[in-house]
Amino acid sequence: MHPLFLFLSFVALLSALGVVFAKNPVHSVLFLILTFFSLSGHYLLLNAQFLAAVNIIVYAGAIMVLFLFVIMFLNLNVDTEPHKPALAKVAAAVAGGSLLLILVAALKDVQPTGVPAGTVFNSQIGMVDQLGMKLYTDFLLPFELASVLFLVAMVGAVMLGKREAGERNF
Amino acid sequence: MLELPALGWQSIVIFVVFALSLLIATYCTYAERVIAAFLQDRVGPDRAGPYGLLQPLADAVKMFTKEEFFPGGANKVLFVVGPCLAMITALMSSAVIPFGNTMSFGNNAFFLQGIEVNIGMLWIFGVVSLGVYGVMIGGWASNNKFSLLGAIRAASQNISYELAMGMSLIAVLMISGTLSLREITLQQSVAGEWQMWNIVKQPIGFLIFLVCAFAETNRTPFDLPECETELVGGYHTEYSSMKLGLYLFSEYVNIFVVSAVMSVLYFGGFNFPFQYELRDWFINSQSWELNSAQNLITLLGTVGLFLKIFAFIFFFMWIRWTLPRFRYDQLMRLGWTILIPLAVFNIVLTGALILFGVI
């Protein structure tokens, strides 16, 4: 296996464990950002440059900033953490355990087959223009619907921010 | 496997770019004071060395020898990580900026650019969006309510202005058809054609990008995260010695990088008017070789790019000492209700102009 792959997997797993086991929620968020970075490294190894960059911009650059934003406001730490009832703990353990069961069951029968014979490797496959061609030909309708959804969300945000009649700020 | 940049020339270029960003940022601190003094009709720094040119050195010595102070209840690790992150993210973005065209020696040719990738614009955008972590983490780890408020302001301001900035970049992407900054630069000047810089095709987009650049680099009139009239010192209230130095320094590195990006995207990058005519004149009238004429043009182009960058840096400082600070609600209103709709309008307008073949 490629040494970079091993290194990135190591960092990804270690920081993912850090997300779960860190006592301080801010540390958890920072570990999660590190996980996203190593996932972006994996995308680069898979020749998907665009996906790697967008993963950094959207997840590490925007969504995680909002996470950090909220967690900083909440001021969560050991002293203020409310005691969770036993029922909640049992329910969480059951839910997590069944998710693990499903994942193991799904991955149990996976056979690594490799690339089918006769496949020609296209080095441009993850590049922006290839992706764009695919999105605008084979997946045009879902792409357009998603963009309409984004536009609606954006217009909504601008409308919420608009000053209402008679409102005074200062 | 990844294609790592060839060692040798490329590593020299990377080292020079790194050193130049630091040097320019150092002298930005000096330029800031000289320009402030000029605009306020004062003398400015003139004690350390001729014309005060050694002032940045004196400041560095002061910063390094001051007491390292950790506030009580601060998160020690993150308190140190914050300024380091601010500096790292500031320095990372200069990797993809094309500082010059090709230099050729014999059969070897290399780009005056750290790394040439086909996602250059996305790289810049991604690194800019990470820049806020340094401020947020530092502000939170200080265990001070003013620092935390500064950090929160920085986060919401950056996210708000990133949207408009990204959409103004999309309009550039629409006319260039590529994300590679080198390709975008080369498209702005074609031999034997009357090709205009992108500023002519994208005046609205450039204005949006410029305003967002001020917000992203936390410069006046949008320096709300460190607004001293409301927040003492904002996110770096508790910082002293070189950790404060790194924060202040990363701001100047950011200004340098964002000026370079604006020059590359909108002002032709390393192109300058009549470069091909000048090259042909050297070849035909002075009987130079093609390579040496091309190399000379490349070097002149690099000088030209740096002149454009310095002009933008001066503009940043000019604005700082001219305009007062915005109020926070005004800042948010400008970002969300003016810049974002304007950026959407700009995208639609650009699309229409491309459709009707105007640009």
From TrEMBL, chain A:
Record localization: Cell membrane
Give the record's keywords alphabetically. Answer: Cell membrane, Membrane, NAD, Quinone, Transmembrane, Transmembrane helix
Enzyme type, top EC level: translocase
Membrane topology category: Multi-pass membrane protein
Pfam families noted in UniProt: Oxidored_q3
Q: Which domain of life is it from?
A: Bacteria
Which regions form coiled coils? none
Q: What GO MF annotations does this protein's record show? A: NADH dehydrogenase (ubiquinone) activity; quinone binding
User: Which reaction equation describes what this protein catalyses?
Assistant: a quinone + NADH + 5 H(+)(in) = a quinol + NAD(+) + 4 H(+)(out)
**EC number of the protein:** 7.1.1.-
Extract the InterPro entries matched here.
Answer: NADH_UbQ/plastoQ_OxRdtase_su6 (IPR001457), Nuo/plastoQ_OxRdtase_6_NuoJ (IPR042106)
Q: Which residues cross the membrane?
A: 46-74, 86-107, 139-160
Name a single GO cellular component: plasma membrane
Role: NDH-1 shuttles electrons from NADH, via FMN and iron-sulfur (Fe-S) centers, to quinones in the respiratory chain. Couples the redox reaction to proton translocation (for every two electrons transferred, four hydrogen ions are translocated across the cytoplasmic membrane), and thus conserves the redox energy in a proton gradient.
Q: Which family does it belong to?
A: Belongs to the complex I subunit 6 family.
Identify this protein by name. NADH-quinone oxidoreductase subunit J
**Native source organism of the sequence:** Hymenobacter rubripertinctus
Q: Source taxonomy lineage?
A: Bacteria, Pseudomonadati, Bacteroidota, Cytophagia, Cytophagales
Automatic annotation (TrEMBL), chain B:
GO MF term list:
NADH dehydrogenase activity; oxidoreductase activity, acting on NAD(P)H, quinone or similar compound as acceptor; quinone binding
The answer to whether keyword Transmembrane helix applies is yes
| GO biological process, alphabetically ordered | aerobic respiration
Task: Please report a single Pfam family linked to this protein.
Answer: NADHdh
Segments passing through the bilayer: 6-30, 77-100, 120-142, 163-182, 252-276, 296-319, 331-356
Signal peptide segment: none
Q: Catalyses which reaction?
A: a quinone + NADH + 5 H(+)(in) = a quinol + NAD(+) + 4 H(+)(out)
Per UniProt, the enzyme's principal EC class comes to translocase
Q: Where in the cell is it found?
A: Cell membrane; Membrane
**What Gene Ontology cellular component terms go with this record?**
plasma membrane
Q: How does it sit in the membrane?
A: Multi-pass membrane protein
Keyword annotations from UniProtKB, A to Z: Cell membrane, Membrane, NAD, Oxidoreductase, Quinone, Translocase, Transmembrane, Transmembrane helix, Ubiquinone
Q: Which domain of life is it from?
A: Bacteria
Q: Its quaternary structure?
A: NDH-1 is composed of 14 different subunits. Subunits NuoA, H, J, K, L, M, N constitute the membrane sector of the complex.
Purpose: NDH-1 shuttles electrons from NADH, via FMN and iron-sulfur (Fe-S) centers, to quinones in the respiratory chain. The immediate electron acceptor for the enzyme in this species is believed to be ubiquinone. Couples the redox reaction to proton translocation (for every two electrons transferred, four hydrogen ions are translocated across the cytoplasmic membrane), and thus conserves the redox energy in a proton gradient. This subunit may bind ubiquinone.
Recorded family membership: Belongs to the complex I subunit 1 family.
Query: What is this protein's name?
Result: NADH-quinone oxidoreductase subunit H
- Per the UniProt record, the source organism is Hymenobacter rubripertinctus
Q: Which gene encodes it?
A: nuoH
